[in-house]
Design goal:
With 253 residues, this protein is of the alpha/beta class. The chain has a single domain, classed as Alpha/Beta hydrolase fold, catalytic domain (Rossmann fold), CATH 3.40.50.1820. Helices cover 38% and strands 19% of the residues. It has 9 helices and 8 strands. It has an 8-stranded mixed beta sheet with strand order 1-2-4-3-5-6-7-8, sandwiched between helices. Helix 4 links the parallel strand 5 and strand 6. The chain is globular and about 75 Å long.
Length: 253
């Protein structure tokens, strides 16, 4: 092959790589968020956040205790509500439908979900004084953010990550992720500001978010704040709410 041929081939490869990078940059949120409809649209609260209607799957209960739940990136939290209700009969439940999910208006993004989490906490704190927060997978980001910025009683993180950027680097090392990624969900950066007792439940067989990310997140908390529990024979998408580790974490007062 001549030098000119090599140069032409290299130029084609560079153009192709650049096109892939541009495509990933433009469509990246389609790989992060997978909006789901609400299978159970009953008992939903409506939040108005900067003119956008955001829905919350709700189970009312009088008294001081409430739980705010942030689900995974393809989770219908209206179905999760029943499992939590069975575990916590004395607790009011508030499960956020991210924008674009479950009838909520708008499109999901880190900035939008952060704003919605703050609005939801403001609403819940008007009615309850003992608020726990649970985040699963993608929900780790808003859960840690809320616990770092608002008073909460407990924080429970299920199959979490230290940051979405760190996960993406591992999954796509051939892309310039540091330049492309917009929604970084850097839970580890916010973890040192969390003062609420925290339990991190990781899955030993997690192929989506390997448990090293949960360990890195655990190290980011201030000493004594967070406990790490790694559940054997559990994968990322396996049912985690029925596990003994989650039940113990959730039922601590």
């Amino acid at each position: 092959m001549t030098i000119a041929s090599w140069q032409g081939w290299a130029a084609c490869v560079a153009l192709g790589y650049g096109a892939v990078c541009l495509l990933m940059g433009a469509t990246q949120r389609n790989f992060i968020y997978f909006p789901q409809p609400a299978a159970d649209p009953t008992q939903q609260l409506v939040l108005q956040v900067a003119g956008t209607k955001v829905l919350v799957a709700h189970r009312p209960h009088p008294g001081p205790r409430a739980l705010i739940y942030f689900g995974g990136n393809a989770e219908d939290v209206s179905l999760t509500r029943a499992d939590l209700a069975a575990l916590l009969p004395d607790t009011a439940l508030y499960l956020l439908h991210y924008r674009g999910y479950g009838g909520s208006q708008g499109t999901p993004s880190e900035a939008a979900i952060r704003a919605d989490a703050q609005a939801l906490h403001a609403l819940v704190s008007q009615h309850h004084s003992a608020i726990s927060v649970v985040g699963r997978s993608l929900g780790t980001g808003p859960a840690v953010h809320l616990a770092a910025t608002q008073p909460v009683q407990r924080l429970v993180l299920l199959v979490p990550f230290d940051s979405l950027l760190a996960v993406a680097r591992g999954a796509m090392p051939w892309l310039p992720i540091d330049l492309l990624l917009q929604d970084r969900w850097d839970a580890a950066a916010e973890a040192p500001r969390v003062q609420a007792p925290t339990t991190i439940v990781a899955a030993a067989n997690d192929k989506v978010v390997p448990p090293r990310h949960a360990r890195a997140l655990h190290r980011a908390f201030s000493p004594g704040v967070a406990e790490l529990v790694v559940v054997a024979d559990l994968g990322h998408n396996a049912p985690i709410l029925p596990t003994a580790a989650f039940r113990r974490a959730l039922l601590q007062r």
